[in-house]
Amino acid sequence: MFSLVLNKMSDYINNHRSQDGNGLDFVFAENDGMKKEDIKNIEDHMPVNTRITVTVKNASYQGVYDSRVEDFDNSNIHISQPSADGVPVPMVPGTIAHIEFVNTSGRFRFETTVTGRKSQGRVTLVTVEKPKSITRNQLREFYRVDTRIKGKVKMFYSAVPDKNMKIPHKSVDCMIMDVSGGGGKLITSSWMENHQQFLLDMSEAVPELDSAPCTAIRVKRIQERTEVSFRFDFTKESDRNLIIKYVFKRQIELKQTLG
Questions:
Q1: With DSSP H G I counted as helix, E B as strand and the rest as coil, what are the percentages for the chain, rounded to 5?
Q2: Contact by Cβ (8 Å): 63, 78
Q3: Who's near 104: CB < 8 A, 6+ residues apart?
Q4: Is the peptide bond before 161 cis (omega within 30 degrees of 0)?
Q5: Residue range 136-160: average pLDDT?
Q6: pTM for the whole thing?
């Protein structure tokens, strides 16, 4: 399905190139439809210091890595050395990379090619081509992947006399069945109500997230267990980016498993 969407986008882009050849094609993917908007400067959407995720799929160092935009010139974007858990990874010229970032307008992604390196003082930056096209999804449109993450649901109760104050009450085991940057689905033995708020410990898959804030949006009782569809209530996009990064890694794992 993912490859079908990419092929659909590629066909659309090729048929709707910027007429003057100088603009950047923005393809907005909304409600299964696509529309194009030409812009002149990617810097308007992706300024210096923007945190990005760099995905490499067809090299000896396949993976999903953290980076940041450091500088621009007429044809290139200069980014910090991509790294995983603080360890830098090689990015040799010719490497195809997929870059993703999030801002208040949505979630953006594009494909690019590593062209070289640039020294900036004692720091060496990786240089990639500015993209010819870029896609944007509204923030609610996240890719969902199947998982089998053992987690814990941290329940709350209202304190007395301040009924608005929430205090951790109990922690119950759960199995997270699927997840995306917007939310997911889990199964637990504890009953929950629609719109109930809780914390989710999914540190088995994302070590930094042992208390992700969530809200139950659909609850269904199946025999002795409860199936809960939930949304994440992150206040910082950096926390949501941890989920997005995990989803990318999981997509690669599933693709390798299925061949």
A1: 15, 50, 35
A2: no
A3: none
A4: yes
A5: 76
A6: 0.53
CA–centroid distance for 1 within its chain: 18
Residues 64 and 55 sit within 8 Å (Cβ to Cβ): yes
Closest CA to 118 of 56, 76, 67: 76
Long-range CB contact pairs, 95-98, < 8 A, 24+: 95/56, 95/59, 96/56, 96/57, 96/58, 96/59, 97/54, 97/55, 97/56, 97/128, 98/54, 98/55, 98/56, 98/57
Give the pair of three-digit tokens for residue 80.
Answer: 């910090």
Provide DSSP, 205-217. T-TT-SSEEEEEE
Of 4, 241, 48, the residue nearest 139 (C-alpha):
241
**Distance (Å, whole) CA 144 – CA 160:** 39
Classify residue 38 as exposed, middle or buried by CB count within 10 Å of its CB (0-12, 13-18, 19+): middle
237-258 pLDDT, tens per residue? 788 888 988 887 887 777 666 6
Q: CA dist 107 to 27, 30, 72, 139, 249, Å?
A: 12, 12, 21, 6, 17
Question: Measured between alpha carbons, how far is 68 from 46 in angstroms, rounded to an integer?
Answer: 10
Q: pLDDT at position 164, please?
A: 54
**12 CB burial (10 A radius; 0-12, 13-18, 19+):** middle
pLDDT band (50, 70, 90) for residue 22:
low
216 touches 110 (CB < 8 A):
no
The DSSP output letter for 18 is -
CA distance 198 to 148: 20
